[in-house]
Amino acid sequence: MIKSIVSCCLTAMSISVLSLIAFAFIPGAALASETAFPTQPIQLIVPYAAGGATDTIARLLQKGMETRLGQPLLVINRPGASTTIGTLAVARAKPDGYTLGMVSVPHVANYTLLKEMPYAQSDFIPITPVTNTPSVLVVNASLPIKSVADLIAYIRAHPGQVNYATFGIGSSAHLAALLFENKIGAPLTAVHYRGGAPAAVGVMTGEVQMSFGTPLSVAGGISSGQLRAIAVTAVKRIKLLPDVPTMREQGFDYINGAWFGILAPHGTPDAIVQKLFRAIAQTMAEPDVQKIVLDSGTEVFVTSPKEFADFITSETKQWSRILRNVEKQ
Fold it and tell me: Binning pLDDT at 50, 70 and 90, where does residue 35 land?
């Protein structure tokens, strides 16, 4: 009798286990798991040091995303190797939505700038861009330059003698200057500094003549009269510097910016990608968030995952074309 009862129990357990295994392979079960997402903290890996522009944008997302998703958003700084260390960690992460990465312009430029890449674009699923920061073209205030036309004439009158400040190879300042150089067909020389503030100081002291700085990094020098703002690279004038005209206003067809966006590892379920996209988009639409972004000279830039994927493809092609024949400086 006891043997019979044990046998029945074992049989019942086996059926139960088999039922659970079968349930795991039912599409509805997977969908339920994705709908319940998230059930634990999410990591947002930033491939830059704490305190920089990318890190600031990541932390701006924290409160709104935590409120909407009901779980902590942990910002993890993993700088180094032209952003590839942190971005590689995202590529290698489990595609379950619990590890995301924030990337910017170097993410698309690295495929041309670096001899070897530890990952491919196909290793990621783009979710959405979040902001775009136009550059501000500034020159040393002592130079006889007050417009884009003046600057181009000055560069052509001093071939090979005009230097520009960047905050690193592949940085937005570096790429903006390379794009400008490509458009005017005249050579410029890069001088790389350790950040936006030191680069601005380099222009103020006359170590270099010009730079494509971020609005915040050059605003102080402009207000003190040590830097002269020539143009912004946005579609329209920015709130932080309303008196500085765009390049297009001056008849020069040039629009460029340092965008920041969120990626997930390839294979992340679409239901989770869409849930993350909605949380990010709703956070960036908050009036308080928009005010902080606009006051810093930046603009909110949110698109669908598909549009962001197309944008990354376009950006990669553009910078590959521009950088292909540029010797590293």
Answer: low
**Cβ pair 166, 192 in contact under 8 A:** yes
The DSSP line for 292-303 is HHHHTT-EE---
Q: Which residues contact 160 (CB under 8 A, 6 or more apart)?
A: 187, 189
**Do residues 238 and 181 share a domain?**
yes
Instruction: Tell me, yes or no, whether 43 and 116 share the same domain.
Output: yes
Instruction: Say yes or no to pLDDT of 173 above 80.
Output: yes
Our count of domains for the chain comes to 2
- How far is it, in rounded angstroms, from Cα 23 to Cα 28? 9
For residue 167, the domain's CATH number is 3.40.190.10
Rg of the chain over CA atoms, in angstroms?
Answer: 25
The confidence band for 156, taking pLDDT boundaries of 50, 70 and 90, is: very high
Q: Is residue 5's pLDDT more than 90?
A: no
